[in-house]
Amino acid sequence: MRRLVGVEMTRLTARRGIRLLVLALLIITVVAGTTVFLKSHRTTPERLARARAAVASEHARCLSGEIKPFDAPPGVELDPQQFCDEQFNADNVRIDKQFHLSSFRDVVKGTATFMVILGLAIGATFIGAEWSHGTIVTLLAWEPRRYRVVAAKMIGCAAVVFAGAVVFEIILGAALVPAAIFRGDTAGLNGMWYRDVAGTVLRGATLAVIASMIGVSIANVARNTAAAIGIAFVYIAVIENIIRGLLPGYQRWLLTLNAGRFLIAEDMTEFPYRSTLGAGLLVAAYALGIFELSTATFRRRDIT
Amino acid sequence: MCPPPPDRSPMAIIEIEGLKKEYRRLRGGVTVAVAGLDLVVPEGGVFGFLGPNGSGKTTTIRCLLDLVRPTAGRCRILGAEARCDLPSVIRRIGSIVETPALFPTFSGKLNLQLLGRINGIGATSVDDILERVGLADRADDVVKTYSLGMRQRLGIAAALLKDPELLILDEPANGLDPAGIKEIRDLIKRLANEGRTVFVSSHILSEVQQVCDRVAILTRGRCVAAGSVHEVLSQGRATGLFLRVERPDLALSALQTAGLDATRDGDALRVASPPSDAAFITKVLADQGLYLTELRPDEADLETVFLELTQDPVVEEVAV
Ligand SMILES: Nc1ncnc2c1ncn2[C@@H]1O[C@H](COP(=O)(O)OP(=O)(O)OP(=O)(O)O)[C@@H](O)[C@H]1O
Ligand SMILES: [Mg+2]
Predict the structure, then answer these.
(1) Of A60, B24, B28, B134, which residue is least crowded by CB atoms under 10 Å?
(2) pLDDT one-digit tens code per residue, B222-280
């Protein structure tokens, strides 16, 4: 079994699509790091003074009547002095164009969704390709125990997706460090922050693994990559929304809402039903259930 | 689920009993792919599994390899029940089912390495096998760039990688040119000489006739003839005599005058008489001053027997 998993990991990482994806992700991190670096500016007293001067001159133009209140309700006469003081108050000017590394936590939350979608697609193509090339027959000529064949694929795929997701976030974080050090700040990076970010990265990678497992399971029954991705999309975009709209009482059981709750790991007013762990366990249980159903079908069906 | 193995002849490599496979159709009804097949393949030599398109050869092979579930009947392969014990013997079986399927974007070598690693077969064995099928110099190219014949050879390489006792090759000469077909035929002969059993399916009979020790002929899911090539040939039409003579036109009228059913076949003649009539024919011709240059029993070739046995009127095989 270990050999089989090793073979599947090699097979997955040798695929051209995966190599291109790795390249694309590396380019994304470089572009992200460079863009943030170029757009990030420290707040110097001169900058602040310049910004305030600009507002003060607007204030003067406002008082001279050059700029008029545009949304005065009919019949209401506004006091021009009061209006201009409110709109163009140089004392209230704050500028913050610098990158705070502490916001990386939100970056991780955002990219986790992206990782989950990629995980689903990788899982689906991994087994979809076996079907479209007919290589599943070749594989079964070497290992006829079908459960093992899929389980090895699933485990190999999960390992690659998990490692890939974690490594991507680490590289992305590293790419943002220069912007923070030279043109931004690293305030707020305490032990709790690190734990928080690490937790988010790991939970995101776990969700990506779960998505890949679902991708493998659906594609192994649909025997086709595109069909599997289509089914997943229809479920998420249509079926879950219908349930949310028509049967709000069942929301607590929905896959994406629980996955979101698990990733955010904070109490959410709009989803008060479960703890982080509870939501994670439910999502994992769904994935395992889908996997078992899919594999049971695979074991029974003819392969022609 | 698996019945205990019955007493079986120790020499049988494949035993198929009452095998039946029906495919359900999308619009109702079933297609009967195999309809009660019995077959015993003895150990050693080359066994030809012959039949026209759609006669159920591939389906039978899929049943043997537990790829499809038989509707009825059972298959044993190397003594193991295909439906339950195949994993215990799979290391001794190399197979190609229909066209060999490998990853088109991987090199030939990587494809074989990935398969070999499942059984702990190392890279050197892979190189040896590639050498053996004549793909060593293209081993690092991706399979997509291979010709049909090269892909077929790579498939055979994959099947040979386990150093199997039994090779199951489903139409290995499919799509090959005459040189390629001869190459495969020679390879099959060599494999059998090494002591392996080769089970090869085909509808190109003239090719198979030359390498097979035994054959079975399948039509619409049933075995219509089985045995050594010679035995099967003798199941053909009662054969006559084939003869050559200097002046075939004169000879033809002489034989017909003597009451024999003679026909012209190019510059030779065929007489629909048992071989025991050879003396009489010789005398008739000699009396006319005609002397034979050749006289032999007119034995049908496998092709003729095959066509005779498989050309029943077509019966619609649909049960609704
Ligand atoms: N997956 C399937 N679904 C439905 N019918 C099938 C399926 N596979 C094969 N059949 C039918 O079963 C019959 C036997 O097919 P099979 O492929 O076993 O023939 P074959 O002897 O291998 O033919 P060929 O020489 O063309 O390869 C055919 O009528 C075919 O249409
Ligand atoms: Mg076939």
Answers:
(1) B28
(2) 888 888 877 777 666 556 788 888 888 888 898 888 888 888 888 888 888 777 788 88
Closest chain B residue by Cα to residue A134: B101
Which residues of chain A neighbour B117 with C-beta distances below 8 Å? 3, 6-7, 10
Pair (A142, A244) in one structural domain: yes
Are B115 and A15 an interchain contact pair (Cβ–Cβ within 8 Å)? no
> What is the total count of domains within chain B?
2
Chain A hits for B66, Cβ within 8 Å: 140, 144
pLDDT in tens, A21-52: 989 989 988 898 888 777 777 777 787 788 88
Residues B187 and B261 in one domain: no
Nearest to B66 among A14, A133, A144 (CB): A144
| Position B67 pLDDT exceeds 50 | yes
Residue B20 lies in a domain: yes
Whether residues B145 and B33 fall in one domain: yes
Q: Is B291 on the interface with A (CB under 8 A)?
A: no
DSSP per-residue string spanning B40-55? EEESSEEEEEE--TTS
**Ligand 1: residues whose CB is within 6 Å?**
A 304; B 23, 31, 33, 51, 53-59, 203
How far B52 CA sits from the closest chain A CA (Å)?
19
Q: Are residues B209 and B255 in the same domain?
A: no
Task: Mark yes or no for CB contact A144/B90 under 8 Å.
Answer: yes
Interface pTM, i.e. ipTM = 0.76
d(C-alpha A248, C-alpha A279), whole Å: 17
B62 CA: nearest ligand 1 atom: 18
One domain, residues A78 and A15: no
- Structurally, chain A folds into a number of domains equal to 2
The per-residue pLDDT for B299 is 64
pLDDT tens per residue, range A147-193: 999 999 999 999 999 999 999 999 988 888 777 777 777 777 777 88
Minimal Cα–Cα distance from A183 to chain B, Å?
45
The most confident of A116-120, A224-228, B211-215, B305-309, by mean pLDDT: A116-120
H runs (alpha helix) in chain A? 2-14, 16-39, 45-63, 80-87, 104-132, 135-140, 146-183, 191-222, 225-234, 240-246, 255-264, 276-300
**Chain B residues 9-28 within an 8 A CB cutoff of chain A:** 23
Structural contact between residues B302 and B216, judged by C-beta atoms closer than 8 angstroms: no
Return d(Cα B320, Cα B32) in angstroms, integer.
11
- Could you list the residue range(s) of the whole structural domain that residue B285 is in? 241-299
| Residue B259 and residue B189 share a domain | no
Could you tell me if A247 and A141 lie in one domain? yes
Partners of residue A7 in chain B, C-beta under 8 Å: 114, 117-118
**B78 with B159, same domain?**
yes
| Sign of the CA dihedral with A40 first, then A42, A44, and A48 last | positive
